[in-house]
Give the backbone structure.
Amino acid sequence: MSDLHDLQAFEVVEGIKKGLFSAEEYVSSVIKTVEQVESRLHSFITLDTDKALSCAKLIDGKLKENGDIGQLGGVVVGIKDNISTKGIRTTCASKMLESYVPSYDATVIERLKQSGAIILGKLNLDEFGMGSTTEYSSYYPTHNPWNLDYVPGGSSGGSGAAVAAGECTVSLGSDTGGSIRCPASFCSVVGLKPTYGRVSRYGLISYANSLEQIGPICRSVKDVVMIINIISGKDNKDNTSMSSSPITINNKLEKFEIAIIKDLIDGSDEEVKRTIYSASEKFSEIGCTVDEISIKNLNYALPSYYTLASAEASSNLARYDNIRYGFNLPIEEYKWDTYFSDVRKNFGEEVKRRILIGSYVLSSGYYSKYYLKARGLRSLLRMELLKLFKKYDLLIGPTMPILPFKFGEKIDDPIKMYLVDINTVIANLAGIPAISLPVGFSNGLPIGLQIMAAPFEEQKLIDVSHALEQAINIQKRPKLE
Amino acid sequence: MSQVRIGLEIHAQITELESKLFCSCRGNYRDQRPNTNICETCCGLPGTLPIINKKALEYSAMTSIALGCNVPDKIMFYRKNYFYPDLPKNFQITQYNVYGFSSIGIEGSFELDDSRKIRISRIQLEEDPGRIAYLEGGMNVRNSALIDYNRAGVALIEIVTEPDFTNPKEVRLFLNKLSLTLEHLAVCDTLLEGSVRCDVNVSMNGGNKVEIKNINSFKEVERAINYEITRQTNMYNRGIKIEPETRHWDDKKKITFTSRSKEAEHDYRYFPEPDIPMIVLGDKFISNIRDHMPELPNQRSDRFVSRYKLSGHASNILINDKKLADFFESILKLYFSPVEIANFLITDFKSMIADDAESAGYLKNMKVKPEHIAELVKMIEADEISRITAKDILIKIFESGMLPSEIVKDSNSLKIADEKILMDAVESVFNTEKSAVEDAKANHEAINYLLGKVMKYTSGRADPKIAMRLINNKLKKPNA
C-alpha cells in the first residue's frame, strides 16, 4: 500500500471503515508530509495539527462504537482562508483581518464537519481572492510543488498546492474569476467551479458576490464528486442558493457533442495548444464528437469581469474598518477624523487598486458608462453561451493560456496579470459550471483542460472528466520528499 | 408672506415585525442591554448574507397602497455606500428608483383634507443603522463613542413627499394623519421612542433647498420648520443668498445649525445588491394585500358615525387615538351602548389620563379593562349609580383593577333611594345650613345648594330625584 497521505478521499474512508488503518495513522501521515514540505511550499496560513489529531481519535472511537463515521469520516480537508471557520482565525491573507476569528461556520464547513471531515488548517490565497498567483498574499506566497520557483496559480494557490503535495487529501477553494481552476491547472489537480447557486456562499468572505462560488480541489474526479455532493444544496442562509440533484460516477459515457473554443486555443502558448489538441483527440477516442467554435462576445469578457468584480469588491470591502474586528491597534493610535483612512492602509496594493477601480465605476456619472455597460455585456455573453449549449453538451479549451510562470514575472504589470484570466472568467460571468482537469506537462509544468457545461449540468462535466482521466492517466504527484 | 415650499422624508420603523429586515434578531430592540440583540448578519460579519423578511415586504406594500402609491410587479434592493461607525457593513441595503426599477411604492398621493392632497414621490424599504452614544461631553471631549448595534438591521419604511406643503400647519396635519394611518395598518407604533424620524427640506421664493436632518419626533418638526422659515426670511430680508445645505436640528436649543460634514456632496455609489436577487412580487401578492387591507382611519370614522350613531366630533376624538378607538370597540362587544360608552370615554375616562401619559401601551399597561367600563356604563344606564359615583369608581378601578360591582359592594356606593335614610340626611343639612334654608324659601334657585349639601352628606350616593322631593316637601312645612 502506498503512503497514507497519498490516498484519495474515497480510499481513506474505505480504509478506515475496513480497519486497514486508523484515522489517527492516516492523519499522522498527512501531518508528517506537512512537516516535511510546508517550509518550502507555504500552503497554509493557519495550521491546527493538534485539533486534527484529536478529531482523528474521535473518528476512531466512533468507528469502534457504532461504525458510523460519516461519508467523509476522517478525511483531511484544507480550507481556503476566505471561508469562515468558527474558532479558527480567518484572514483572507490580509493584514486587515490578521486577528479575526469568526463566531460561526460557513455552511460548507458545517456540512463537511457533519460528514466527518477533519479540518487541518486554512490555506493561503491572494488577499481577498484578488490575484492569480498568491503573490498578493499579505503573508507570503505559496510555491508550486512541481517547481518551487514557479507560482502555484491563484487565488486559491494554497488549496491547489496543498492537495498536489499531499498536505491534505482534498481542499476547498473559491472561484470568482478562475481562482479554483487556475491553481488546479498550475498544480495538476482537479478543480471544479460549480454552477452559480449550487453551493451556498454563506460564510464565504465576499469579493464579488454575483460571480463567486465555493468548490473542491482534489486529486481525482471521484473525490470531486464526493465533496461537491456534500457541500451542494439549497441553504436558507443564502438567497442565491438552489437545490440540485446529486452527481454520480458513471462508468459508461454518453456520446457528447463537444466544441473547442478556438479563440481560447489561438490565444494560448504553443505547448498548451498542443496538449489541449491531443487531449481533444482522446474525446474522439472515447466516442464524443468534437467541433470548433468561436465566441463572438469573448473580447468583452475581461473588461466586463474586472468592472463588475471591482465594483462589488469596493462595496464588500468597505466593512473592514477595524471597529468591530480586524487587527490589533493600540487604542492611543485611534484618531476620530482620520480613523477610516488610517486603518485602511492595511490593505495590500492589489486590493486597493480594485477598490479604487470599483469606486470609480460606481460613482455618479460613471455608473452608466462603465458598470451598467459591463452588466449588459455580461448578459450578452451569457446568452451567447446558453445558445451554444443548445447545440453542444460541453465547451472545452485550456484552463490557462500559459504555463505556470516564475515569481515576479507579472506582478509589476497588473494588466498582464489580468489577461491570464481570460479563459476562466467566462464561466463566472455566465454562472455556468467549469472544471479544470490535468491533461499533461511541458518541461515538468502542468497543463489543465477546462470543460464548461450549461447551468446545473455538472453531471456532464463529471462524466466526461472521469472518462478522460481514465484515458489519459498522467502522473499525479510531484516529487518533494 | 413669501412663498414657502416644504417636502418631507419620513422614516418609520416597522415596529410590528418579530424580526429584523435581514436576520432573525428581534425587531423590538428596545429595553435590551446594548449589543445583545445582534447576530453575525446584522453585525455585518464577513461572509454573512441578508435574507429578506417577507412580512416586511407585505407591510411596506400595505403602507404604499394606503398612501395611494403604485406597487410594482418587481422590486430590487440597492446598496447605498457610505462610511459611518453605526453602519456595520459601511453600506445600507435600501431601494433606489433608477433604470426602470422602482422601490416598493411610487407616485402616490395622500389627502390632507377635502381640498388638499400631498403627492408622495416614493416609498422604500430599508435597514436602520445602529446607534452611537457619546459619553458625557461628546466626542470632542472624550475622543471616543459607544456603539450599540441592537437597532442595526431593523426594518424601516422611508416615505418621501414632493415639496407640496406651503406651511408648517399642513405638515403637522399630514404627520398626524400619517401616524394614524401607520397605526391603523399596524405597521408602526409611532409613540415608541425613535420609531419615527423626519427630515425636512424648506425652500422660499423659489430659492435653494435647505435640508434639516435629525428631527427625532413628529412634534419637533413643526418647530424646526418655523425656526427655519424665520431664519430664511431674515436672511432674505437682509439680501443674503440662501445656499443649498444640510442643517441639523438641535433638540435642546430648538435651533437648526449647519452640519460640519459635507453630506450634500456624498456620492453614495448605488448599485444593485447582488445577494438579494430581483424580487418578483406578482399580481397575486398585490391583490392579496389589497383584499386584506386593514380599515383606514377615514373608513373607520365613517363607520363609527353610520353604525354607532356617534357624532363626528366623538368619532374623531376616538379615532385620533387608535388605542382608545380599539378599546371602545372591545367594550362594545361586551355591552352595546355606543353613544354612552363613547361619551364616557372621551370625557370621564380621558380626563384621567395625563397628557404626557400618551406613551406607547398606556392602555395595555392599565388595570382598566373593557369589562370594567362595560359594567360601569351599564350601571349608570340602569340608574344604579350616579355619574359622579361612576367617576369615583373609575378612580378606584385605575388603582385596584377591581370590577365596579365589587367596588360598589365594598364601599356601599349604590344610590340611596331609601327615604328614611335620605330624610335623616335632609334633616341634618337643614340643621346646619339654617341661613341657606331661609334663602331657599325666598329664592327657588338656592334649593340646588341644599341638594348639593345632601349629596355631599351621603358621599354622592343620594338619589337626587328623591332627595329633591324631600327637600321641597320640608321647605313647604311651616316648622322648617
Notes: The interface with chain A takes residues 40, 43-52, 79, 81, 83, 85, 88-91, 99, 139, 143-144, 147, 267, 269-271, 274-277 of chain B (CB under 8 Å). The mean pLDDT of chain B is 85. Residues 195 and 371 of chain B are 31 Å apart (CA to CA).
